[in-house]
Amino acid sequence: MANQARIWTVVKPTVGLPLFLxxxxxxxxxxxFAVLTHTAWFPKYWNGKAAAIESSVKTG
Length: 60
Description:
Keywords: Antenna complex, Bacteriochlorophyll, Cell membrane, Chlorophyll, Chromophore, Light-harvesting polypeptide, Magnesium, Membrane, Metal-binding, Transmembrane, Transmembrane helix
Oligomer: single chain
Main location: membrane
Distance between the termini: 48 Å
Membrane topology: Single-pass type II membrane protein
Helix content: over 70%
InterPro entries: Antenna_a/b (IPR000066), Antenna_alpha (IPR018332), Light-harvesting_complex (IPR035889)
Subcellular location: Cell inner membrane
Number of helices: 4
Shape: rod-shaped
């Protein structure tokens, strides 16, 4: 654990933590966007059409 603690001697926590959390946020948004644009069921799910999702799962 001491090996990972040394990163803060190179990068200040006030800079490193926002960069890390920001990169996690950007990755999560990109993954959601990819799922939203490349599937048929995800937009229906976000619009609250659970019955359409269930029927597509049963038929597909």
